[in-house]
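As described in the Methods, two query proteins were run sequentially through the folding procedure within a single session, without resetting any intermediate state between them. The first query and its resulting structure tokens are shown here.
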Amino acid sequence: MDIVYIIMGLVLVLVGAHILTEGAAAVAEKFRISEFVIGLTIVAVGTSMPEFVVSSVAAIQGSSDMAIGNVVGSNIFNVFLILGLCALVSPLPFTRNNIRFDIPLTFLASVALFITALDTMFGWGDINRIGRWEGIVMFLSYIALIIWSVRTSKQDEQEVAAEPRMKMWIAVLAIVGGLAALVIGSRLFVDGASAVARSLGVSDALIAITLVACGTSLPELASSLVSVAKGQTGMALGNVLGSNLFNILFILGGCSTITPLTLGDIDIIDISMVILSAVIPFIFAFTFKGRQIDRKEGAVMVAIYIGYIAWLISKI
């Protein structure tokens, strides 16, 4: 049955990603909102719901390893594998705002995670954990960021279609239905994959960073690849950056507000990989052809992810 759950989950994720992308793009056209901002908000928050559900339940149940590992693994997966694969399909161009604001904000959020989580490294405590007040600040920072992003966004004339692709009520139903399929599909995949992993005697921390993180990030993977295949690269980039911001500031911030989160077996290498995932897009924005992630850089990103997973497996 675990294998059946995995297959069913993948099918639902792929279908949900297609429906969600169409609905979100229609909303963008209707309200003259840029694809990037739609990706940063509606798509990013929606596709991050599996991470939110898994981490919230884990935090409430006292499984801090699972709650933090899910976010850490998801952010690493989002950048290195998802953006890497998307760039292999089609180069991902950056806008001026991406370089000036969006990528730096992702980096700052990653640094905030590094500073707040590694208490022993900075001499702030005997246990590595994210405290309640730190969580409140992170959570409120995300709310402020979204309000600022929506208010300051400007629609590029090239991104506005002459005629809307679907009626608004259909677009809303598509978004809701797509999100539902993504959440259910991801949950089936995670449950099946986790059951298989535990039967092999793998720790919760490793399961969270690898299988659970990959499973809960399937919506981002599917929706981003679908967006790129349809030429909506801005939505794909906004989806990944928005999801990473949501994961750190909203999910970990919200969960640690409910109960402080202890890192457990998650170490400085794992958190440092989150920092690297925020730095790599900025570096690639100024290499080779410039202001984009091209196919060569996409291949490098995928290779980094494979190397990291191989290193994790070697520690078992």
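Immediately afterward, the second query was submitted; its sequence and tokens are:
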Amino acid sequence: MPGTFKTEAVVLRSIRYGEADRVLHLYSADRGRVGAVAKGARRVRSRLGGRLEPMARVNLVLHSGRGELCTVTSADTVHAHPALRDRRASLERGVQACEAVLRLLDSAEPNPAAYNLLCNQLALLDSHAGAATRAQSLAFRAKLLLAAGFAPELSSCATCGAREHLFGFSPAAGGVVCASCEAGSFPLDAEAHAFLVGALSRPLSDAPEAPGRALAQADRALAETLEHHANVRLPRVA
């Protein structure tokens, strides 16, 4: 319905449009995905431009008209994450987080858990240089799958329900599988299994660590779960 509304959002992506405008992909606290145009945002004297950079958390006033894109009429910074932008590793992890949300959550329905998770991830990357690790980013991705309803089954065989001898992971089945149901699965070592369990059960700020082999297996498990059940392909976390 046309009209003006307020929302808090994170800028996922900003694209140059025309001579001075920007098209924004936003993820908002109470409206899910929102597309918007910030007219004149690229002009030197614009009050909008510096506040609408990717990964910025902002309070917005938008006008919804007849088109697909809303128009930004006002923007105030909640958190600009300046330290995140000064460190290459943190910047890359922040971009990965926003891209994952952009590709996985395309609905206009609000998802408070996903929004809070994204804000938490960006704040961690901004405040703590050590947060920009592969393990921490995989923990974020695991929690994002949970918020989106695609978390893999880890407590019992996804095919038969057995709770012992869980030696493989089946993307098609959606989780770990036992020796009797391992056809079509790939190996998931105990360390990889433990990492995924810990990533989902522990706070993001206390994400578990794991050896490189275990992280590679966990990464594959998360990526292929999304491909099979959400038709979404995300780049692997390097």
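The longest strand covers residues 3-17. We note this only descriptively and draw no conclusion about the first query from it.
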